[in-house]
Structure formats: structure tokens, C-alpha cells
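Example record

Each entry pairs one chain with its bound ligand, zinc ion.
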Amino acid sequence: MSYTSRRGRRPSEYASKSSHSFIINDPDVSGFLANCDYPKDVEDVDFDKVPTYTVKNLTSNPIKNIIAIDGGRTEVPVRREFPSSVLTFFQFGALYFTMADLENLYIKPFIEPSEISKLKEIQRLKFILPTKNIRVSGMDTLKNSVRKSIYDFFMQNPQGDKKFIESFKWLLFEDFQSSISFWNLASCPTCGQRDIKLKSEEMEKDYTFKCPSCKEIIYLTDTFRLHEIIDNEIGAGGIIGYLGNVLEQVVLIHLIWVILQIKPSLLNEVLFIKDGQLAFFGQTANIHEPMKALIKYLIEKHSIYLAGLEKSGAFVEHADEIADKLAPGTAILLNNDYIYRYIIPGRPDATDPYGSTTYYGRKVIYKADDERVYVVTLPTGDISVSPEAKDFPNIDIILQNIKKLKCDMYDSSLIPVSLVNNLVSLSNHPSSVILEKFARNTISSR
Ligand SMILES: [Zn+2]
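C-alpha cells for the complex follow.
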């Protein structure tokens, strides 16, 4: 997320790469590589043409509260005797604290972990995904076990009487404004019938539909289309990344939904921070459409302070490369030309903005006054090929507050995100044996 820590880790990253030199020396490989495009070196970047923006100082800060959302996951074999039977534990959560508490914390030279636990309020959620060679009772296949597990999770009540399925339905059918009458489902999970219109008015009370062709059940959560990439023999491993991203964003959507019902004015003083991009990928990509509509609605009618922070990937590597060339307090507003020229090898389409089928925001590379560099997606609603500062609502407020969240004790990352990481991360558990035991008990009790 911040380039300093990644630089610190570099020697060990390179240590393992010596074995790769053999492959690069292969004449077939080098011949192939000669015809390929790579991300550009910093020397190739024409800084005169880079669309930069000087981030303004704030006279007053409207942000009073921070909510950070993050998650982690671990794959666990259910029984030692059958290592191919696998479950995936997702653990994710939202961390809440006030800006005032955070500022008090910085006065102290060292922050005790116990003080941090006083600072935050965290909501932790768990979800267990049957991943391979397993089925839950009552379901005939792995695919249907996965579908049912996701649906059941959304039907639980994580926030008292409110269910995730309620806020998800609100998003999908755009109930925040004049609702859309149907959602087009690409294929029926049972019979494969294409383009099924899931009509809001035909939805059952339990958030299910009937396939017009095979009459089998369709869960509202089938709109994630994950069933399309689950194979009963190979497993559901292909959905894990997409699902993790969905679950974290479902927490975000749910919180926005709850705030709009209880006290919409709170949106004027909360900064939401999400780990990773503001986007839906792969099978789940279509969900970016109602999300874009929601962001647009919030920008017009209320307010939304939200940032997606990337820790790794091509954009972070590029930000790392150019960090020294960028003046402190400036942001690069990444446009099509810049992204395809320097970061993602490709040919910019004159009309199709980068990420138009996945993102509900645009990315900037931000170098704070203290020289830390961040890759941030900011919510924009509509996306243009060459965004200008005016296309990023609240850019100064969001970036200035990200700067405030720096944290030296957690490997130069941001306080809330590293805290959530620590608190929800399953890798922090003493061993996966506990999980294995848990898995065994859960399965045998079914
Ligand atoms: Zn069907």
C-alpha cells in the first residue's frame, strides 16, 4: 500500500528469482519475449504529459469517523485421510473508530496493542465455503452446496435484525432510486437456460425465484454467477478470490444501507476504507453497475467518502517505480493513455475507459507530504477516458485523511487496514489444526 515497506522487503523477494534466469536464457523464450510488451521503466515516462493534481490542504476536516473493511481466508483440508476434501474459511470485518481517538494516539511515542483494542470496535464475520470434494447435507452436488452456503450466509442476521440479503436486494434492484424491474441472470444454475429475467415483483419472500424453464430454485445470490465456474470434480477454488472481494463489499453496502435508514447525515463525516480496488471482477463483474448507480446517487443526494487501497499488483509496482519523480502532495489522475502506455501493456480504446466493465471509481497514484505513495481508487460514479480533478468528488478530503492514517508500527501500512488485517486474519491463528477440528465438527454435525 505504501511503497516504503515493499522496498524494505525487496532483497528477499529477489533471492528466490535466481532460478528464473535459466528460463529467460532459453532461446525460444527470449524469442517469444522479444515480441512482447512490458510495463515501462521510469525513464520512459514523459512527466511533462502526466496528468497530475496538487492536493489541497483542508481548512477544516469533515471526517470524524473511519470505517475500514478487510478480510482474509484460509483453505483447510477437512480430514487428514482425505486431503482433497477442502473447505475455505473466510473471515472479514469492519473496524470503526473516531478521528479524535486516532489523533490522541499519535501523541504517544509507542502504541500498546491493548490501547488499540480500546480504540476500535470491530465486527467480525465468518463464512465457510465448501470448496472441493464435499457437499452439505440436503444438497446433491458441490455446486449446489456452494450456492446454498452463500445464500444461507446472506440470510443470516449479522446486525441484529438486518440481513445482508436485504441490503443486497436493495442494491441489485436499485431500490434507493426508481427501482429497476428485473435483473438479467446470464444462466440458470440448474438447466443452463440463458438470459433469465429475475423480476423484482416475482421474487419470493425468502429472496428466491423459480427458473421459468426447469422450475428449479434460483437464489438472489446466484446473481454473482459463481455457479458458472464451479466444477463438481475440480472444485470451487476458482471462485475464492471473487467471493472474498464480494463479501467485503457486501459489508460496505450493508453499512451504507443501514446508515441511510438510521442517520443519512452520518455519511457526511465517515470515511470508508476498503482493502483493494473499488471493483467487482470476473463472474461478479455485473454488480459494478448497480454499485456505480449507488455511488452516483450518494454523490448527488448525500455524500460518500470512500477509498479502495491497493497493496500489490501492477499499479503498486508502477507507483513504486515512479515514486521519486513525483512531487510530495500530488496525485496522478490515471487516464487511459497513461495506464495502457506505462502500467498495463495494451492499446487504449478511445471510447472505453479502463475498468469500465468492473470498476465504480478511478485510480490515482498519490504521494503524500511525508513521501509515502498510495494507489487509491476513488468513487466516481460515471467513468471517463481522461478524468479531471472535478470528476473525483471529495478528492482533497479523502486523500488528506488517508495521509493521517499512516502507521509506522504496522509495516508502513495504514492503521485501520492493518488492524483489521491483524484482527480478522486467520493466518494469525496458532495453526490450522483448530480450523480443521472446527471443520470436522461442523461437517459431522450435519
Ligand atoms: Zn433452469
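Residues 240-262 form the longest helix (23 residues).
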